[in-house]
Specification:
The complex is a heterodimer of chains A (217) and B (334). Chain A is mostly helical and 217 residues long. Chain A is 70% helix and 3% strand. In chain A, helix 4 packs antiparallel against helix 5. In chain B, the strands form three sheets. Chain B has a six-stranded mixed beta sheet with strand order 1-2-5-3-6-7, sandwiched between helices. Chain B has a six-stranded mixed beta sheet with strand order 10-9-8-13-11-12. In chain B, strands 4-14 form a two-stranded antiparallel ribbon. The relative contact order of chain B is 0.15. The chains are: A mainly alpha (217), B alpha/beta (334). The interface between A and B is medium-sized, with 29 and 32 residues.
Chain lengths: 217, 334
Amino acid sequence: MESFASERGEPILGALVAAIQARSGELSDLDGALGDGDHGINMAKGFGMCLEQLSARSYGLSEAFSTLGGVLLDEIGGAMGPLYGTFFRGLARASKGRERIDAELFGSMLEQAIAGVAALGGAKAGDKTLLDTLEPALAAYRRALSEGKPFSEALGELAFAAERGRDSTREMAAKVGRASRLGERSRGSVDAGAASACVILCALAASMRTLLEEEAT
Amino acid sequence: MQRIINEPGEVVGDMLKGFLKAHREIVAATGNPRVLKYSGAPVSGKVGVVTGGGSGHKPAFVGYIGRNMLDAVAVGEVFSSPSAKAFLDAFKAADSGKGIACLYGNYAGDNLNVKMAVELAEEQGIRVKTVVANDDVPSAPPAERSKRRGVAGEVLMWKVGGAKAALGGDLDAVIQAAQKAIDNTRSIGIGLTPCTIPAVGHPNFAIAPGKMEVGIGHHGEPGTRVEDLKPARDMAKMMVETVLPDLPFRSGDRVATLVSGLGATPVMELYILYDTVEAELAKAGLRVRRSYVGNYFTSLEMMGATLTVMKLDDELETLIDLDAQSMGLTQFGR
């Protein structure tokens, strides 16, 4: 069964931070269409702060997620600070003390993380939020596993479904959050939170697949 | 961007440093750089009155820290809610053991962070109750009042809550007074130019020359309609006509009014607006007992103004009239 060592926090966090920083301008522009245009800036700031806090030492995956969640919760604010803070703390809690990350464990990590976001934000599928990326991505991942596909392939399905989930928000009218006051006028633009959730899931999937390949050879 | 700043990403920290230096007789730092408190806080035996919000609205929110006003404020990035930790640390800075009244505005980020902070505070034995301001009439129809944004009416809510706490009200009494204040308050804003978050570097919305956005929000949220610019007297009439039927205000009501600039409109023009506002209120039979005109709740360098009207009863009038000392609002009792 495919798995990788949970002590490999560094390459995964590094990939996450690099992806968020690289897409920061794009995320801000999406936010600017429906909000105030600072989503990418705040995300890049929080992810960068986390990397600084952990620099100059080695750390496992659970510690990386727990530090990232803590920084987003304590320092970033906005709506995305608590939502992504809860997300990463969910990933951290579910992987704490585990030596290897396998397909089943990563599934329960995602479940805990996404359940926390849903409980805090009170949004449902179709409300034009990050959940429209997270929930279908998790469902596709679960489906792949139940069809007997290996971990690395299921991660591919996760990323693919995350992109489709993100794109599905383009035609939705926002029902919660700041953009909801635009109602019908919020159609036509992808939700910034759905876009950042896609960046995060795709970076997680890609970096984990690299680790799986490394350990397989 | 023609701005007086250092690094665009550091405007909030840089501003707070200057603010603390300029107002050290009334405002003090705390262990959290994103929390400021009244120099006398926590005031022994008094309910702590706390708020928090994004930056860029000066004098809101830190400008209302002071005597008979706010005890502590959580400070967010420009137009972005403070973190849950900042709200929690503000509760701690204001807590004398009599509980905390957290009086804040209805925005997704603030709702989430306050909710988390209240849970954390309760785990630590601090009692917190909240009032969420939703005075902005154009932001949602009356049936969906709970979705409306909090705007300049928050200043009057803080004035009332701060006064009630100063006069010895317990936590429930402070919360009831602040809730009554916001339930009797209605606002509307008009925007004439957009504003630019320094770290973003360009305006994130546009208002065409010769036009104005009616019902604009404090962060440039689109209003209900775009109209041609018109003389101040017609703007005033339109603003009064939107606000009065919503409560509704009735002939004979006593009211307090607040006309605030959005940052770039000359204060002179706010008085031009207020001249017709008060005349229109008088025409509707309302009696203005106190009025505030100036930059009370701004949106960076947006041009425009907000009108807020609060219906007074004996309690609200006493609380609005109580003397107060803060950077944004200082007044003497009658």
